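Hey, can you fold this?
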Amino acid sequence: MRTAAFGATLLLLFTGCSTTESGASYQRANDLMTEEITRRVEQIPFQHRDGLLENLLWFAHTGEQAIPAMLKGLKDQSPKVRSSCAWVLGRVRDRRTIPDLQKAVRDEDLTVRMECARTLLLMGDLAWSPALIEGLDN
C-alpha cells in the first residue's frame, strides 16, 4: 500500500513538472496587472538604454505572470520587441518556454536569433551554441 501511494505521488509530481508540453498554462495576472504588462510591452520599441533595461527587469521580476506576453512578443513585428522578450524569458528561466524559443531562434533577424540562442543556452539547451558562434562572425 505504501509503495503504491509513493508511486502515485511521484507520478503526480513528474506530471506537474513537465517542461515540453506545448500550450503550457501560466499563472494568470489579474486585469490591472494584464493592462500594465500590455502597456509596458507596447513601450519597448520607444525605449532605450536605462529606460529599456528598467522595463525589461520589471518583466523579469514580475515572473510567470509576464510569460504569456513575452511569448506573444516573440512574434511581434519589431525585432527589438522580439529580442527583448527573449532576453526577459532568459531572466525568468521557465523551461516551459523552451519550445517557443526554439521556434524563435530561426528568426530572420540576427539579433533575435542570437538572443533566443543565448536564452536557450542559459536554460541548458546547448544545441543552439552554433547560432551564437554564427553571430560572432557578424
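Oh, and this one too while you're at it.
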Amino acid sequence: MTLQNQTLNNTSITGQTIVALCTPSGSGAIGLIRLSGDNVFEIVNQMSCLANGQTIDAQKSHSIAYGWVTDQQKNKIDQVLFLIMHGPKTFTGQNVVEITCHNNPFLIEAIIDQAILCGARRAQKGEFSQRAVLLGKIDLLQAEAIADLIHAQTSDSLKISMAQLEGSLSAWIEKIENDVLTILAFCQASFEFLDEEIDFAPEIRTMMQTVISQIETVLASYPKQKYIKEGIKIAFIGAANAGKSS
C-alpha cells in the first residue's frame, strides 16, 4: 500500500462516527457514552430532543445541553446531558458528543443501539486513542501512558504515567532525535569540507558522548521505573504454621 493510499484509508476510517461506553459496565449512578466522527452532530440530532427546542449542531462548542435520547418514533429513552465539542479541540481531534445518562445496562445498550441505527458504529477497543494518534493529537508514547494511567496501582506509578501523558518522555525522545540529526549533519559536513581541512571530529565526538550519556542514564533508571509500574513480587516461604500469614 502506498503512503497516499494509506493516508486516504486512514481518512476514510477516522471519518466514520464511532460510539462506545466510556465508563465501567454495570449498574451505577452515571454512565458516559462517547461519539466521535465527522457527522456526529447529524447522528445525534436524529436521536435527541433538547429542552431548549434546538438541535445539537446549533449548540456552542464545549457546552452542555439538557434533553432526552429518543428512538425513531421520538419516544424518550432516557433523560440525559449532552456535552457538545467541536473539533479540533477534542481528545480525538474530531467533532465529539458525550452523553451522560443513567448507568443502567439496558439504557446504555438502548442508547448505543439507537446511535447505530442513526449511522454510527461500535468503536473497537482503543479506537478513540487510535484516532487521536492518527490525527496528531497525541503520539504513541502518550497513548501508552493512557493505558498505564488507567491501570496504575500506586501513587508513584500514577505520577509517572501522568508525566508521560503530558509529553515528558516524548519531549526527551524528540531532543535525542534532534541531537542525532545534528551529529549526522556535522558528519556530512566533514566530507563536504575535506579540501578546507576543517576538522569536525572533536565536535562530533563531544555530541555523541553527550547523547550516549543521556541514553545510558535513562536505561539505568528503567528497572526502577518498571518496579514502580508493575510492583515487586515477593514470596513468603516457610514451614506450615510458621507465621507466614501474620
